[in-house]
Amino acid sequence: MEDLNFQHRARARAGGTRQSAIVGVVASGNLEVLVERSLPDADCALEIKTAAVGFGEVWSAVIDDFVERYSPGGLKFSINDGGARPDTVSLRLAQAVRLIEGNGQ
Amino acid sequence: MSVIEKTAAVVTPSEARQSADAAAQIERREGAKVMTSWQTGRAARDARIAAGAGLAHGKIVEAKDATRLLEAVIRPGDRVCLEGDNQKQADLLSRALLAVDLSRVKDLHMVQSGVVLPEHLDLFDRGVAKRLDYAYSGPQSARIARMLFGGKIELGAVHTYLELFARYFIDLTPHVALIAAVSADREGNLYTGPNTEDTPTVVEATAFKDGVVIAQVNEIVEKVPRVDIPADRVQFIVESDKPFFVEPLFTRDPAAITEGQILTAMLAIKGIYAPYGVQRLNHGIGFSTAAIELLLPTFGERLGLKGLIATHFALNPHPALIPAIESGWVRQIHSFGSEVGMDEYIRARSDVYFTGPDGSLRSNRAFCQTAGLYACDMFIGSTLQIDLQGNSSTVTTSRIAGFGGAPNMGADARGRRHPSEPWLKAGAEADPDSPAPLRRGRKLVVQIGETFGDKNVPLFVEKLEAIELAEKLKLELAPVMIYGDDVTHIVTEEGLANLLLCRTAQEREQAIRGVAGYTDVGRRRDRNMVACLRERGVIRRPEDLGINPLDADRSLLAARSIKDLVRWSGGLYSPPSKFRNW
Description:
The structure holds 2 protein chains of 2 kinds.
Chain A: E1 2-9, E2 20-24, E3 31-37, E4 43-50, H1 56-70, E5 75-81, H2 86-101
Parallel strand pairs in A: 4-5
Antiparallel strand pairs in A: 1-4, 2-3, 3-5
Helix pairs in contact in A: 1-2
Chain B: E1 4-5, H1 13-16, H2 20-23, E2 35-36, H3 40-53, E3 60-61, H4 66-73, E4 79-82, E5 88-89, H5 91-98, E6 108-114, H6 118-126, E7 129-136, H7 141-149, E8 154-158, H8 161-168, E9 176-184, E10 190-191, H9 199-207, E11 212-220, E12 236-239, E13 245-246, H10 259-276, E14 280-283, H11 287-302, E15 312-314, H12 322-326, E16 332-334, H13 343-348, H14 365-374, E17 378-381, E18 385-386, E19 392-393, H15 406-409, H16 421-430, E20 444-448, H17 465-473, E21 489-492, E22 495-498, H18 505-513, H19 520-523, H20 527-535, E23 539-540, H21 562-568
Parallel strand pairs in B: 1-2, 3-12, 4-6, 4-9, 6-7, 7-8, 9-11, 11-12, 14-15, 14-17, 15-16, 17-20, 20-21
Antiparallel strand pairs in B: 5-13, 9-10, 18-19, 21-22, 22-23
Helix pairs in contact in B: 3-4, 4-5, 5-6, 10-11
């Protein structure tokens, strides 16, 4: 196991009013993302517990692109990763933002 | 010329033990009065048949005598084709050959397209066989690599199917062919069933060049359902106590298709199938192309593409194509082989498949490979490694899976002369400056896959492991599946690269890096150049094609399980037990 933490400044606050959302599952090659609206509007934080050790650089690249693209201001992400591929991580993060920006559905 | 012919009639039993090659060495001297013959091959064949005849009633030999038959017919050093196809295996004859007395049969040169059964390699461990020319070794890929490194196998070459078949008629003609069929009548007429595969090609080369054909059959019947191989090309028949082995190679469980594969499939349909209007094509066997097959009746239908794309296939009977067939997308399919469980469905859909007068599928690998090479406008398939020039390989340093048919499907046929819209459009993109009447078209050769494969292994590499392997084994050629100059497009979840539009090696490299995602190759991209290629439409992202990655959902699949496929088929598809979980 490895713990990784990333803090980012976001261009804008994430839309919607929903307070939290969860997507994905903890399984081999998959991941679970819990997202909570608990930070100041310009901040974004990600706490990752991953089964795959030594991929910090790839996580950093994936998260840079994600923050740039979705501007998830005010959101804190807690991630349990079962060794998912980077493209799966990108997809789950994007799904988490879509869910929390939705109208409580 | 004073030539005294030595005919078959005067071949003595001791001469019958000589190999055909030895017989061929009878002196031929210009102008001299020597014993010579132009029919030594025929004489040797007749001697082989005579030697085996003692074990046969008519042409029929009992299974328990199979090894003795092979000892009688096969000579040391012979070229032997032990029918190992992509799917169908002459397994009884493999076991019989493995058990021969090494003082009578040894050092064989095996010429067979598929090295699939453990027995195929046991032959080399035991010394029955020495040299190997083959095309595909899927399930044995790890062991064959170990044996090549260990010097147990003297390797001729790894071929494509068509290439090996071609050599059967030029310099690798078998002395003996050991083949598999479903049934035989007492004359020796064979019914090969839906998995005809390589049999007609193997028999053609062997029977018409003084070779001996021995068939294992599941049963001997009064009248075969149809004649796939005429009796006069078959010398011996062995009835097997159980049906020959067939592997279900083309069944992909829709339940295992990922969102990433669905996204790449959407990009391929909207970014390649639609703009080029690809109607005639071949699909690889991976999950990404299975996803395409399952998206045609949903995503494809919404795009209004029915009838405009994916109408004619060179393809095995993929169960994943059932929903598209049932929805009226597919007009015609010619097949290399068959697929376990598809027999009844195929019989009931003879408008789509090639079937015999008996109603069952007639496949033929040589013809279907030719069809894929010359009459299809696109090949789309997966691979294990792609380098910066676009060369791709399924070989890694510990596995040599061979080529099978992909290099024939995934290659521009330089002998092609008939025009079609996708072929001309691709040719124009590659070479916009030549005058149209003199410009070659181009086949679309598409590599599709996720940037990371199983166990997070990257699809993109700086150097193919195939090159390392070639160095270690001292091969003159690295085993490259599809050469970079034949590849026209690469599709990953990050986007689509159109290599036809690249004008320099540097552009090509950056186009590949630009869709290589978070692999090392992808992260070492020149961001400015990639942005520039995207502006020119060389690279297209999902959003450039109006596709939201979040829409890549499993609910888009026309069937989400094997059971769904059975339902689509109206109960005609009968999946093998390993795919049943209900």
